[in-house]
Each structure stands twice: as structure tokens, then as C-alpha cells.
């Protein structure tokens, strides 16, 4: 079974800076099966990126995903105030169970 | 506009039962697999269960297998989660989530409801 480990646990940055979030998978994962979600306080999660690098509908191009194998990255360039939230990676393989990472909290410095 | 509205949450004693519902609108319900995902207070996301378009393929997390039952009524555009033998550790917000794929299961959770809080406590 896949285990997803996200780092750092908390990332403190200022608006306008660039954020780099990491997701490490316990075994090699096809990039087709890696997604990223954003969860703002008090809200439901929202799909940001699927298949490692494809933005979901309506997601700004300052969000980008990359990676392969066991190491995946979510990059947010030019941070906006609304980007400060918790981010989760997820593996969505050929069939469930679908596993989430423990989350990275992006907070305002 | 895709809408998913959960209901049925509340306070229940350990060992008790509860049934969650998710009313779907704004899309053709039987074109998509559906899921339940939960989030304990202050914790991360945990996938709970999935059901295919017809209901023929069903999967559960080990933590709920044998206690929870996912089902759907395509005529009513509704998803359900029957929760039995509830434990304190089942306390969470339960989200209904629609698969992004049409006609196939992708595991990408493209749309989410606002969640329904289930509290298991004596």
C-alpha cells in the first residue's frame, strides 16, 4: 500500500514569494495517479492538480505540479493571500484505496 | 453548476448507527463514480469508500470495512453511507466527492460537498 509523506509540515512565506511543497511516495507511482488538493480554513478541499502536472478547471497558472516515480512537487509562484491554506497530495491508483499525504500548511510569514 | 449536499450527521453514542446522504445536482449522476472522504477534527483527509457508476464495484478503507456501507440511488441522484458500530475515532466531517472521470473511475476527486459532521460520544 502507498504511503505519502509531505514536507515541510508548515511553510511560512510572504505574499509574492514562491512556495515549493514536496510529496514523497513509499513506492514508485505513475505520474498519472498523483493529485494535489487545496483546503482553505472552513472549506471543503478543492482539486488543484491531477496526473502530477495537469491543472484542474479554473485553477490559476501560478499553480504547477511536477515529478515522477517517488518524488512529486507542487509549486505556487507569486503567492496570493488566498493561497495560504493546507495542501494535500493524493495517490489515485487503478483502484482504491486512495491515500492522502498528511498535508502541508502554508501560512503567512 | 455541480452541487453536492450532505445531510444526516449528528451526535451518536458509541456502538450506534447513522446514515449520511448526499444529494447531487448539476450533472448526470450515473455518469460518475462517487466517494466518501472524512476529516477528523484538526486532522488530515482520509478516503473512506468508493462506489462505481452502477454500484457494482465498491471499495472501503480497512478502518471502516464491515461497519460502513456505501450505496447509491441513481434514480434519486443520491449517495449514501450507512455507518454502524460507530466508534469515537469515527468522529469527523464526512465529505461526499464526485470522481472527475466521466464513464470511468479516475480516483481524482473533482467536486466536493461542504461536509456533514458526525460526532461519536457518550
Number of helices of chain B: 0
Label the overall shape of chain B: globular
| Average residue-wise pLDDT of chain B | 97
What does the largest sheet of chain B look like?
A: 7 strands, mixed
Largest interface: A-B, 24 and 22 residues
Shape of chain A: globular
Tell me the total number of β-strands of chain B.
11
Report helical residue fraction of chain B: under 10%
Distance between the termini of chain A: 36 Å
The sequence of SSEs of chain A as H and E is EEEEEEEEEE
Question: What descriptors fit this protein?
Answer:
heterodimer; A: 109 residues; mainly beta; seven-stranded mixed β-sheet; three-stranded antiparallel β-sheet; 10 strands; 0% helix; 54% strand; B: 122 residues; four-stranded antiparallel β-sheet; 11 strands; 50% strand
Q: Overview of this structure, please?
A:
The complex is a heterodimer of chains A (109) and B (122). Chain A is mainly β and 109 residues long. Chain A is 0% helix and 54% strand. In chain A, a hairpin with a 3-residue loop joins β5 and β6. Helices cover 0% and strands 50% of the residues of chain B. In chain B, β4 (34-39) and β5 (45-51) form a beta hairpin. In chain B, 42% of the residues are buried. The model of chain B has no long low-confidence stretch (mean pLDDT 97). Classes of the chains: A mainly beta (109), B mainly beta (122). Chain A binds chain B through residues 33, 35, 37, 39, 43-47, 50, 56, 88, 90, 92-93, 95-103, and chain B through 35, 37, 44-47, 50, 59, 61-62, 95, 100, 105-110, 112-115.
